[in-house]
User: What shape does this take?
Amino acid sequence: MTPEQMICTVLRTPTCRSINFVLGGITVDGPNFEVVAMCIESGDITVDVQPGKGDVAHYLSDSDVFEIGFATLPSVLHAGLLVHESVHAIADFQEVDIKVRVSEAAGYVAQALMFYYVKKSEADANPGVNPFADPILSAAWDASKPLRNKTGGTLTTAQLSALDAAIIANPHYTGKENKKVLCNGLF
Assistant: This one.
């Protein structure tokens, strides 16, 4: 399986079709994940595998490129990275006017929802257990709870406050959390 096929396969799973919310003007749902998959297949979005970069993924909106550090899918956490970055691709083709912190919040919430749907039985049996040690993913897990098993939901500022604080506190986002994301379309 090529890296392109790997990403498209993840985006076409029932898990991704279960994700359905709007955040910061980005509509994150199965049909939009399908658009990302079709854009990868058509070459409108290219995939650049960068061996040695490890467990990372990035979507570059200025060049419509997925950069990934892995060519195979060793875990559900890697699939979550692909879902997260696909949210940024969705924002790009939807040409959403958005700040980094909101775009990242949408990506992390989608990532948490993907993990929830994969581990649904276990998560529903233990609703008080947060499976993530990472502060951002932990906050996204908690923020995603009102969106689980719902269609077209959104989150209030209060529901996003812990996630927003975790994003701002992360050195990777420090100084750029309020910058606008380039969402210039794909076509």
About this structure: The chain has one domain: 1-180.
